[in-house]
Design brief:
Helix content: 40-55%
Shape: elongated
Mean pLDDT: 92
Low-confidence stretches: 462-468, 474-481
CATH class of the largest domain: Mainly Alpha
Number of strands: 0
Number of domains: 4
Distance between the termini: 101 Å
Order of helices and strands: HHHHHHHHHHHHHHHHHHHHHHHHHH
Radius of gyration: 36 Å
Number of helices: 26
CATH architecture of the largest domain: Alpha Horseshoe
């Protein structure tokens, strides 16, 4: 009735959203009202709201109102490519993003619809949005068209539709992409230089990795630009056993390629993260180097020793080609040194069982032996194991403070440790450190009266020795400056 009056303005907008009656009707899917409004000659079918800059077609497509979309598209003066002002998204992009298959089909039937028009915010095309959101039917519709660019990347990450599909594990969509001759399976993201295979391997999408590796033109050794990691490196780092196996089946795979950030190989990553089965799989290859060092700590054995992974250490030490004395960078820490400081008794035992092990190797920073590190940290079990070896020198002083294992234990107040060390007849008890402190004077200066008592009672301390300030060991700790 209102539309029958000539003085009624059909394009008048509300003050809150800036929407006309046609916009409201299209948004809410009122097909009959849309038809009535469009019968008026003075209705503008392309008038956008002032809130988001969306047209009636945009609002209807976004909400999947098929009848309204159909009605609007029957008008020749409707612009199907008009983007909103909020995200710069077209009606087609909204429909593809929200999974409205039939709306997408109707829009693509229009010859004047641009299927590659990306939004202005992230540079995402309708195909990319559909691939990212797992709308496989819509992906299929786009890929069946000759005028769709399947390699058009977004502007936010530089990712292609294929990249998004692999990242999210959409195996069926990936098959559709790879059926096209013009899809580049190695196209890298501009943000971090990852390929589709790299994304799939990192996230453990075995089915996707299998599909990609069936292509001979897929490069399995491409490293990303952010960390310099290959697909194999990512899979090993994240413990994806199935993906690691598939990648190693490729004859052109390089299993020793280290990343550029830490110089860490796939084997090193698996060891550092404690993935025993991945370590076994990688060591099953004859061309995998178990002694290759990274730039942070060192070898695979060093990582196992540092973190106490007994099974990985055992696997490695059963091999003839693993060097148990390999020193870490940058301070030349050996696996035994790492295990001793961290208190990993069983790994210490395994390492000491090796014929070629050197139990007295000191690092180049503190100049401490494995025994010194264990004594300093208070690892009684490790110290006990080391002291049972006749070739372990209990008196080696570090270069940093000039302190022996006994001095270090006394300075930290480790009473049980001090008692254990004093059981060795060859332990020197009055050795002066770089500050001319004996184990006893050091214990007193730090208030460790229990340790001082043990040293005095055992009769192993030189009671007459004085420190660098000329103060006697007989003075109580509280009287010292």
């Amino acid at each position: 009735m209102l539309l029958e009056r000539e003085d009624v303005n059909p394009d008048q907008v509300d003050t809150k959203h800036g929407r006309t009656p046609l916009l409201w009707a299209a948004k809410n899917g009122h097909e009959g009202i849309v038809k009535m409004l469009l019968e008026r000659d003075n209705v503008n079918p392309n008038q956008a709201d002032t809130e988001y800059g969306r047209t009636p077609l945009s609002l209807a497509a976004k909400s999947g109102h098929e009848g309204v979309v159909k009605t609007l598209l029957e008008r020749e003066d409707v612009n199907p490519n008009q983007a909103d002002t909020e995200y710069g998204q077209t009606p087609l992009l909204w429909a593809a993003r929200n999974g409205h298959d039939r709306v997408v089909k109707m829009l693509l039937e229009r010859e004047d619809v641009n299927p590659n028009q990306a939004d202005t915010n992230y540079g995402q095309t309708p195909l990319l949005r559909a691939a990212k959101s797992r709308h496989e039917g819509i992906v299929k519709m786009f890929l069946e068209r000759d005028n769709v660019n399947p390699n058009q990347a977004d502007t936010e990450y530089g990712r292609t539709p294929l990249s998004w599909a692999t990242r999210n594990g959409h195996a069926r969509a990936i098959k559709m992409f790879l059926e096209r001759d013009d899809v580049n399976p190695n196209q890298v993201d501009t943000q971090d230089g990852s390929t589709p295979l790299s994304w799939a391997a990192e996230r453990g999408h075995e089915g996707v990795v299998k599909i990609l590796l069936e292509r001979e033109d897929v490069n399995p050794n491409h490293a990303d630009t952010e960390y310099g990691r290959t697909p194999l490196s990512w899979a090993a780092r994240n413990g994806h056993e199935g993906v690691v196996k598939m990648l190693l089946e490729r004859g052109d795979i390089n299993p020793n390629q280290g990343d550029t950030k830490y110089g860490r190989t796939p084997l090193l990553w698996a060891a550092e993260r404690g993935y025993e089965e991945v370590v076994r799989i990688l060591l099953g290859r004859e061309d995998v180097n178990p002694n290759q060092l990274d730039t942070e700590y060192g070898s695979v054995l060093l990582w196992a020793a540092k973190y106490g992974n007994e099974q990985i250490a055992k696997i490695l030490l059963q091999r003839d080609d693993v060097d148990p004395n390999t020193a870490a960078t940058p301070y030349s820490r050996t696996p035994l040194s790492m295990a001793a400081e961290s208190g990993h008794s069983r790994i210490v035992e395994m390492l000491l069982e090796q014929e070629d092990i050197n139990p007295n190797t000191a690092d180049t920073w503190y100049g401490r032996t494995p025994l010194a590190f264990a004594a300093w940290r208070g690892h009684d079990g490790v110290v006990k194991i080391l002291l049972e070896r006749e070739d372990v020198n209990p008196n080696t002083a570090d270069v940093w403070y000039g302190r022996t294992p006994l001095s270090l234990a006394a300075g930290e107040g480790h009473e049980g440790m001090v008692m254990m060390l004093l059981e060795r007849s060859d332990v020197r008890t009055a050795t002066l450190d770089n500050q001319h402190q004996t184990p006893l004077s050091l214990a007193l200066s730090k208030g460790h009266h229990g340790v001082a008592k043990i040293l005095r009672e055992r009769g192993h301390a030189n009671s007459d020795a004085a420190d660098s300030h000329g103060r006697s060991n007989l003075l109580p700790a509280r009287s010292r400056d």
